[in-house]
Amino acid sequence: MSTVVIGAGPGGLAVAAALQQRGETVTVVDKAAAVGSSWRGHYDRLHLHTPRELSGLPGYPIPRRFGRWVSRDDVVRYLELYAAHHRLDVRTGVEVTDLAQQHGGWTVTTADGGRLDAENVVVATGYNNTPAMPTWPGTESFTGEIIHASAYRNGEPWRGRSVLVVGIGNTGAEIATDLVEHGAGPVWIGVRTPPYILVRDRGPMTANLLGIMVRHLPVRVVDLLQDRMLRLETPDLSAHGLPRPSGGLYSKVLAGTIPVQDVGIVGSIQSGSVVPVKSPARFEGDEVVLTDGSRLRPDAVVVAAGYRQNLEPLVGALGVLDARGLPRSHGAEPALPGLHFTGFTNPISGMFRELRIDATRIARAIRPNRRAARGVTRSPAAR
Asked: pTM for this one?
């Protein structure tokens, strides 16, 4: 059997390795020039939000020398080592433009007119595929600079300048902290909905490990336990302009909102270095008018409002996407015969961990082991 994996990020490489370990012939294609292209483009201070021991992909753990909280550069190095370790057939600079079912399999058409025929296709182009820039009235009149977080590397260009960061997810919180550490100021952070903020680790216990432990409990129970714990662990920042969140942490996660891990944002808000404000409503010349009517005059606006998956050009005509543009089926469950998706969820338990689990399950679904394929079962005495 043969499989084409589209995307040479952690999800695509993990599936390719898991399939190859089961004897499958796998080709990985990616339009970028190297593996892990999205990680290469992230801001400098980024680290995995899951500890090293929970983040390794199938068949090759993350080296201990990379530390517990793996940096962006070391994640890229790990992905390079991973592809080399498994001797994966990775073809970079290959953009896929079309998928079509053909004779019980799939034909993958590339931008240069090439074709790859395969019995299975796994789409792993990534949750954060394409920057999503909101639009506000008057942005064309704004005299400052507006950039998406995907273009942000570090705060050095804004030393001594004022910046509004829009969005208080993990990316926005880290960028605001980074700006302060590089001497920007004042730094404001636009908040539409107050987030749950988690202590990253408590000795050996991490926020992700706790999320794994409680994920099978009833949602209301987890909400109650987590809210009580957070009230004990996380300072009340209401006096600093950031009210306590509501609605239940786990309920929010299931609705697609991931809590913020504290890697400095709480201290920055407490010290007044980062000032929470309302979200922008419109732009007027050198001013940003917020939803509460107040006005700011930042030199720059960094929009940390997220990404979209941009799957429609590739598979939109196949009827496999929901109203949000996400795959209706994910992981081991095929969207169509021979078509799988991985990496299009945003789990509290950690993306790399879920990619590892997905990869193993997809490999089993596509390539059962020989014993299972022959219908051979073990006798009770041999189990």
From this structure: 0.88
